[in-house]
Specification:
Length: 509
């Protein structure tokens, strides 16, 4: 068997893992970000880390935010629960230490502290948790697309063949969901201008040209280099870039005829109708097995059946993401305003997971390859869980900031009002913020990746291809594969960080 066929077989015929393990893994990015924030707050209270260079901040962010993701999906995947348990213990210890070391001039009761926390005002320009959600999905995707080619990456985390839930299956769906959270329709760009809806659709057609160009470039490169590819993912010629382009345009066309506030309803209609067609016709069998058998790939539609028909499911996910984006980006000023919103997101996640359990029993299991109704439900449920968990831990970090007197930590909510608790705070200790607010985002890896997310995704794909062409990934030792993964992610992070420090945004439209 040739090396190409061997690598293709290595990522084929897989069945995924449990929803519990995926949820456990998704708890790592927000827990790591909270740990980073608490460490920075603790250090700033001692006036430390203020004079460090940007490279030191990069190393710190990489060690705390990126390295755990690499280790958790490779050598420590069998002991995954140790990561969240350990991080929860560390975060709790730091938070209690911060609470106990505060020495206000006037004694302050705990109830008064809680009341001030609930009523403190937040900076409303943007919601950091949405950025954290999108960047975390991008980072997890970057790690997985290379790690999957090494034996140290568990096969249960890879994309499933036909049915099942794998970590990488969630990655593709969550990527679409994350794009919808901040799409132009959510940010109300289109509704604020006087241009017609047709003009806005034309703008969307123009804006997706980078995805089309990248899709064509990837197609040509893969075929020319005889690079290994898993055909049953999207087909012979189709790839994820084409899916992103079509989903964006199709959603814009739908919203020319329907109000953006009905995106959730459209999502349900599309997903249910698609499932009815799958069940009542031969479409399900056609997508999985083609016209005659599983190797039949004659004709463009048959050759790319997975990629073409799965677009319908991804459009449903995108529309659901728009509805969630409208809800999350609704202006809320205080912590007290955000607590019910987080509860609703958690309730929505629980309700959808319950529905998923019923649907998988009475209809069919989750299938990324088909992008069926259970897949759509799962992606939205898992995304709501992830987003609500990020929001919840960000509020906990905000509480720590309040205790410290208003420290500024990047990629998290900042207090926009002075409080009595801050004024009565420490009398015998000189206090300085960790970093000036206007420069805070310059020392944050998440903000650096957020500035050029598409470029980060593109360079991750390119570097993955280079590593695969230069390295026999399947026969590489575990230690060397971890070294390659860490070096690969550090190079990705370093490029993004340098561009961010120089305030360079590479935008193609």
């Amino acid at each position: 068997m040739s090396q190409k066929l061997f690598k293709e077989e290595f990522v084929s015929h897989l069945n995924g893992t449990s929803l519990g393990e995926i949820s456990l893994g998704l708890s790592l990015p927000p827990l790591c970000l909270m740990f980073r924030g608490l460490v920075l707050i603790s250090l700033c209270m001692e006036n430390q880390l203020l004079g460090c260079s940007w490279f030191v901040h990069l190393l710190f962010d990489f060690t705390v935010l990126v390295a755990p993701l690499v280790f958790s999906c490779t050598v420590f995947s069998g002991f995954l629960i140790l990561f969240p348990v350990g991080l929860i213990a560390l975060n709790t210890t730091l938070l209690l230490q911060l609470y106990n070391t505060r020495r206000p001039v006037v004694p302050v009761r705990s109830k008064h502290i809680i009341d001030e926390f609930l009523n403190c005002k937040l900076e409303a320009e943007h919601i950091p948790s949405v950025t954290v959600f999108r960047v975390s999905i991008n980072m997890l995707t970057a790690v997985s697309i290379l790690a999957v080619d090494f034996v140290s990456f568990p096969r249960r985390y890879a994309k499933t063949e036909s049915y099942g839930t794998g970590v990488m299956d969630f990655g593709v769906g969550a990527f679409v969901f994350a794009n919808a959270l901040v799409c132009p329709e959510v940010r109300r760009k289109n509704t604020q201008c006087s241009q017609s809806k047709e003009v806005n659709v034309v703008k969307q057609l123009i804006s997706v040209w980078p995805f089309i160009l990248l899709g064509v470039g990837r197609l040509i490169t893969v075929k020319a280099a005889d690079y290994h590819e898993h055909t049953s993912e999207y087909g012979v010629h189709w790839n994820f870039f084409f899916t992103l382009a079509v989903v964006r345009v199709a959603s814009s066309l739908l919203l020319t005829h329907f109000s953006v506030n009905r995106s959730g309803m459209l999502s349900v209609i599309i997903a249910v109708f698609y499932q009815i067609v799958l069940q009542s016709t031969e479409l399900n069998m056609f997508i999985l097995h083609g016209n005659t058998d599983d190797v039949s790939r004659t004709g463009f539609l048959n050759a790319n059946r997975e990629g073409i028909f799965s677009v319908i499911g991804y459009v449903a996910i995108y529309m659901a993401g728009i509805q969630v984006g409208l809800f999350v980006l609704t202006k809320r000023i205080t912590v007290k305003d955000w607590i019910p919103a987080i509860c609703w997101l958690m309730f929505g996640s629980f309700a959808l997971f319950t529905l998923l359990w019923v649907v998988q029993i009475y209809i069919e299991p989750v299938s990324r390859r088909i992008a069926n109704l259970p897949f759509c439900i799962w992606i939205v449920a898992q995304s709501l869980y992830f987003l609500s968990f990020i929001l919840l831990l960000d509020l906990v970090l905000l509480f720590a900031k309040l205790l410290s007197g208003g420290s500024v930590v990047p990629s998290s909510w900042n207090i926009s009002h002075s409080f009595n608790l801050t004024q009565r705070r420490i009398s015998n200790q000189k206090f300085k913020p960790f970093i000036q607010e206007r420069n805070a985002s310059n020392c944050c890896l998440f903000e650096a990746i957020n500035r050029n997310q598409l470029l980060f995704f593109l360079q991750s794909n390119v570097m993955t291809g280079i590593v695969n062409m230069l390295t026999d990934t399947i026969n590489t030792s575990t230690a060397f594969s971890i070294f390659i993964l860490l070096l690969y992610m550090f190079c990705n992070s370093f490029i993004m960080y340098v561009l961010h420090m120089r305030k360079i945004t590479i935008k193609y439209w």
